Here is the input.
Amino acid sequence: MGLVKWVEKKFHNLSIWDFAVVKLALIMLGMVLGAFLSVFVKQYISSFIVVIVMLYIVLFYKIFKKR
Here is the structure.
């Protein structure tokens, strides 16, 4: 069994609550990193916003595209 097949199998076993936990953990990690890098983030806030929006566009495209 390849890595991709293994990940797909595990992915299908996750519930919405599992994804909520992952998202919460990533948000908290971002908050901690943001506290340490606040000056850097403030300098490039527009660049960060552009990257975040682009990543969400790609994510939504993959989620909602018809197969």
Remarks:
- Residues 39-67 form one domain.
